[in-house]
Design a protein that fits this description.
Length: 231
């Protein structure tokens, strides 16, 4: 996509249920490993359902879990938070960011861990933002916004239970140039919101994946565990 020297972020898929490159494992759930070249930091967004699968896939990229500094959990469903146990067992120093509503359930399970509850949009690493929590009283979720050096925005979504549109609109407050959307789109059907987005990486729980692929055949990318993308 760009020269390796001038990228802002490298996003690697480390958990998904649709496809995997040779040597990588599939599983139910979603997770991406992000290398932020602006801060020289590794971050994890979501953890899939099973820690052993997740750790295998991370190691397969020649990254150690102990190299990861921060983990952002989109929402408290087992297919996104299930692998956190193994990650925390290996790396007790990792900073954990969860929707504020789920703070108590995480500090209950990880009383010694550095857990932060997020309510409003906040920068958690250089040019990387938690969206803030959105959704119903019973289910809150946050997405991740990555803003490149060129002011392009990448949205990473776990399941998008509050609606992908909600995260797209929130992301537009950071930058009008949305370059990519990657992750689970769930029941999202307002496909006109994807117009103009160059990289559409719908995967995991996306129900309208066939319609999205047909309508945006140029922009659609098949997301496989083990794939890495530079932005
Ligand atoms: Zn979910
Ligand atoms: Zn999910």
């Amino acid at each position: 996509m760009y020269m390796k020297s001038d990228f802002s972020f490298e996003i690697s898929i480390v958990y998904d249920d649709l496809c995997a490159q040779p040597g990588f494992l599939m599983g139910f759930g979603f997770s991406t490993l992000i290398y932020n070249s602006l801060s020289k930091t590794y971050l994890l967004f979501d953890t899939g359902s099973k820690g052993d699968i997740l750790v295998h896939n991370i190691n397969k990229l020649n990254i150690k879990v102990s190299d990861i500094k921060k983990v952002i959990i989109s929402h408290n469903h087992y297919d996104h938070a299930g692998g956190l146990k193994e990650i925390y067992q290996i790396n007790h120093d990792i900073e954990i960011y969860v929707p504020l509503q789920d703070m108590k359930s995480f500090t209950g399970v990880y009383p010694e861990a550095q857990v932060q509850g997020i309510s409003e949009m906040v920068e958690v690493d250089k040019n990387i933002f938690c969206s803030g929590q959105f959704g119903s009283m019973s289910l809150k979720e946050q997405a991740l916004f990555l803003k490149t050096n060129n002011n392009n925005l990448i949205i990473i979504s776990g399941c998008a239970h509050p609606g992908l549109k909600t995260f797209i609109l929130k992301g537009q407050t950071l930058s009008k140039e949305i370059n990519a959307v990657i992750g689970g789109f769930h029941g999202f059907r307002d496909l006109s919101f994807l117009e103009g987005i160059k990289f559409i990486g719908a995967c995991h729980c996306t129900q309208k994946i066939r319609e999205i692929r047909n309508r945006f055949s140029e922009q659609y990318n098949v997301i496989c565990v083990g794939n890495s993308y530079l932005f």
